[in-house]
Design brief:
The protein is mostly helical and about 180 residues long. The chain has 8 helices and no strands.
């Protein structure tokens, strides 16, 4: 597995060096090792496959990104259930890939599913929920659904504001305890 980690790390390094072909090659080598060692539905493999798909999407290979994610989504839901972090991450990645492919209806469907899961499994002020709202508002903007765009931008802003206020209150309480 150390070799798989090394390959994935090299994939990230090559990505930052803008050597995208090598980046893809090493990420997929790391993924193949994980599949052989752990199996396709091990969390380490699912995480690696999702990360590889994100990288492919960033590199502009939406078709391969979608293919990698669709390979694992249904079996992963069957094994782990819908309300699980890795499942939420797969739906968010699918939404991104579909959005970058200009398939906004599919992107919306996946984004809504990712948000549904995030709202159920994360703390109500978790930044991933606000990120989901931001992503969905962007999808609606591309579709010229401006009322929905504004609605989700406002939801994200409200969540961000509440989280910042909550963090401020916690910091003030901590400072008060230190002073006493």
């Amino acid at each position: 597995i150390k070799l798989a980690i090394t390959y994935s790390s090299l994939g990230v390094l090559y990505y930052h060096l803008k050597r995208f072909n090598l980046s893809e090659e090493y990420n997929l080598k790391g993924l193949d090792i994980r599949k052989n060692v752990f199996g396709t539905l091990h969390l380490e493999t699912i995480r690696s496959q999702t990360n590889s798909a994100y990288l492919l999407s960033i590199q502009g290979n939406q078709q391969k990104c979608i293919q990698l994610l669709k390979e694992i989504i249904d079996p992963a839901v069957i094994k782990y259930g819908l309300y699980f972090f890795e499942i939420q991450n797969i739906y968010a990645a699918l939404s991104l890939c579909e959005q970058r492919s200009n398939n906004f209806v599919e992107a919306e469907t996946y984004a809504l599913q990712a948000i549904k899961i995030a709202e159920k499994i994360f703390h109500p002020l978790d930044p991933l929920i606000a990120d989901g709202y931001h992503d969905l508002s962007e999808i609606y903007s591309f579709q010229k659904k401006y009322i929905l765009t504004l609605s989700y931008q406002l939801k994200a802003a409200k969540l961000d504001r509440e989280r910042n206020l909550n963090n401020y209150i916690l910091a003030e309480e901590f400072n008060s305890e230190i002073e006493t």
